[in-house]
Amino acid sequence: MEFKIKHKDSRARVCEIKTSHSSFTTPIFMPVGTAACVKSLDFLDLSLILDAKIILANTYHLYLRPGADIVAKFKGLHGFTGFSRSFLTDSGGFQAFSLSKNSKHKEEGIEFKSHIDGSRHFFTPKSVLDTQYLLNSDIMMVLDDLVALPSDEKRVILSVQRTIKWAKESINYHKERQSKGLNLDNNIFAIIQGGTSYEQRKLCALELCELSFDGLAIGGLSVGEENALMYDTVEAVSEFIDENRPRYLMGVGTPEDLVECVERGVDMFDCVMPTRNARNGTLFTNFGKINIKKAEFLRDERAIDEDCKCYTCKNFSRGYLHHLFRAKELTFFRLASLHNLHYYLSLVKAMQEAILKDSFSEFKKEFYAKRSLS
Predict the structure, then answer these.
(1) Which positions are annotated as binding substrate (predicted)?
(2) Residue where one domain finishes, among candidates 208, 236, 270
(3) pLDDT, tens only, 333-342
(4) pLDDT by residue (tens digit) across 245-271?
(5) Which of 123, 149, 150, 281 has its CA 20 to 30 A from that of 20?
C-alpha cells in the first residue's frame, strides 16, 4: 500500500492511498457491505452511480456465510461481488461486542456461538487473518478487544492489554507470511482501544505505533459515550499517532461526526447510518434530516434536497418517495440508500476540496449554518 499526505489545513488533511485494486483520496467514507453487499444496492450502483472507491465487508458474517473458502473460489471479494475497487474487512471484534450474549473473550481470542445456527467457533489473531487472506481484502483489521462505554477501569485496562498482545501476534504472523512471498497485496491495520481513558489510549497508541502496521484505527468509540467525549478522545489520541500512516475512525457516524473528526485529523470512516436510516425513512440533506414518512410530504413535488445532484434527487420527488415508503415498495430502499450514500460521499469530497483550499474552518461554519436554517 502506498500512502501520501497531499495537503494539510491545520490538523485536517488530504491524503492519497493506493492499494493493488484502486487509488482513493481521503477524507473517505466507506459504505458498509456487511455480507459482501451494501443493502438494497448492487456493485454497479456503487461503481457507476455513486463512484464509491472502497467498501467495507464483514469478516464475521462472511466467515459464517457463505464461508471464506467459498469466497476464495471466486478469487476473493472482488471476483465474488464484481466490485473491482478496494475492500476493507473488519476483524469480527465488533460483532463479538454487539453479539455479546453469544460470545466470550479469552486471553487467546474470542469464543462465540453463531447467531445463524448456534454452532461454536473461536477467533484468534491468526485465524482472523487467515479468513481475511481468503477474502483477499486490500485492508484487513486485526483482532481487538472492544468494550462498551462507560466501562470500569479494570476492564478497559484488560482490553488494552489484550489488544496490544493480539496486535503483536497479528503483525508477526503477517510479516512471517510476507517473508515467504505470501499476501504481499494485503495490508493490515491495528486498532487503538482504551475507552475514554487518556492514559490507556496513549499507552495503546504508542505501543501500536512502534509496530509496522500499514495503518492505525481508532476503535471503541460511538458505543455509548457522549459525542463531546468522543471528539475529545479522538483529538487526544491523534497526538500519539504518527502522521505517516492512514487514520481510520471505526463505525462513525453522523455527518457532524465526520466534520468534527476530519478537523481532528481522521482520514477514513465507515458507518451503517446512511443505509440503515434510509431504510427507515430518514434522509440526509444539506440542511439536516427529513423523515419522508411524514404526511407533509404526500403532495411535495420537490426533490429530497434541491441542491443535491444524486440519481434519486434528479429523477424522483419527495411525494413519490413518501408513497413508496408508505406502500412498502422495495424500490424505496434503493432510491433512499442511493441518496444517503451520495450525501455522505459528497460531504467527504467537499471536505477534501476545502482542505486543499485551506478553507476548512469556513467550510465547517457554512456546514453548521445551513443546518441552523432548517
Answers:
(1) 90-94, 144, 193, 220
(2) 270
(3) 999 999 999 9
(4) 999 999 999 999 999 999 999 999 999
(5) 123
